[in-house]
Amino acid sequence: MASETDTAQEAKARREMTLVIITGHSGAGKSEAIAAFEDGGYFCVDNLPPRMIAGLGELFIHEGSGVECAAIVSDVRGGEYFDELLQVLDDLERDGPEPKLLFLEADEATLLDRYKETRRRHPLAPEGRIVDGIRAERELLAPLRERADIVVDTTDLTGGELRRRLAEELLGTERAGKLALTLLTFGFKNGPPRDADLTLDVRFLPNPHYDLELRPLTGQDEAVRRYVESGTQAGEFYGRLMPLLEFLVPAYVAEGKSHLTIAIGCTGGRHRSVTVADRIRRDLENRDDVVVRVKHRDVPLD
Question: Per-residue pLDDT tens for 126-144?
Answer without folding.
Answer: 777 888 888 888 988 898 8
